[in-house]
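From: lab user (bench 3)
To: helpdesk
Subject: output format question, protein + biotin

Hello, I'm new to running complex predictions and I'm not sure whether the block I got back is the full result or only part of it. Here's what I submitted:
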Amino acid sequence: MFNIEEFDIKLDTEVIGRNFIYCDEVESTNSVLLSSKEFNQHGTVLLGEYQTKGRGRKGRNWVSNAGQNLTFSILLKNDIKDHKINLVNLGSSLVVSQALENLFQLNVELKWPNDVLVDKKKIAGILLDSTSKGNRINRIVLGIGINVNQSNFPGKFEIQPTSICKEFKGIVSRERLLSEILNLFEDMLGIWKKEPEKILNDWRNRCRLIGEKIKIVDGDKLKSGVFQDIDDEGFLVLKVGDKLEKIHFGDVSLR
Ligand code: BTN
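Helpdesk reply: Thanks, we reran it on our side. This is the complete output you should expect:
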């Protein structure tokens, strides 16, 4: 059972997570915050102990044992329209990495666009959803799934999963971890608005595939080339022969 008091004591934000909603069971925290008229306040955080239809990137499922992990979403509404949306996506993966390093001294690596890996295994994933009015984004929902105290991952996966308890070798306080993430997340939002290039540079420093020969799979399309860089919007720049191509979606792996 998630102890809200223990979480609240360490929460040091002005806005993010001050409206905190806890649900035993929810379809998907992202789906709820994306369309809810009830939970409509900027900075709202919805934590679901169990998701019946947890969603991952590219239409995949996100499956997570009840009560052992963190599956939550953050709603952003204020002051979002003038900033590059994909950078807050990359920024969120940086926040999770920083929290895992601060609290558990884990050696974290990022895989484009925002998989969080430890020892090449996936420890957390992030899903950004948004809605628009006209051509303006009016709601961003950042959904974060972190494997915390789950020790077994039966099934087949694109990338082998792991959890903090497996890597850190001890039971982890989900409450302390969530407060750390939200504290760092609020700081990151300020950087996203004022110093977006810092997000890009920090992300580059945590990605070990830049400069490597990679392949990118998007549905039935496959592309190969050298991972040249990310551009100023956070999209992947692939060098194919002597041409540069901008990649918006796909699963990256070493060739
Ligand atoms: C991925 O790596 O494919 C992204 C996974 C994102 C999972 C989180 S769990 C909380 C939020 N609600 C969802 O339905 N998905 C995200």
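A quick orientation on your result: The first strand starts at residue 20 and ends at 26. Let us know if anything else is unclear.
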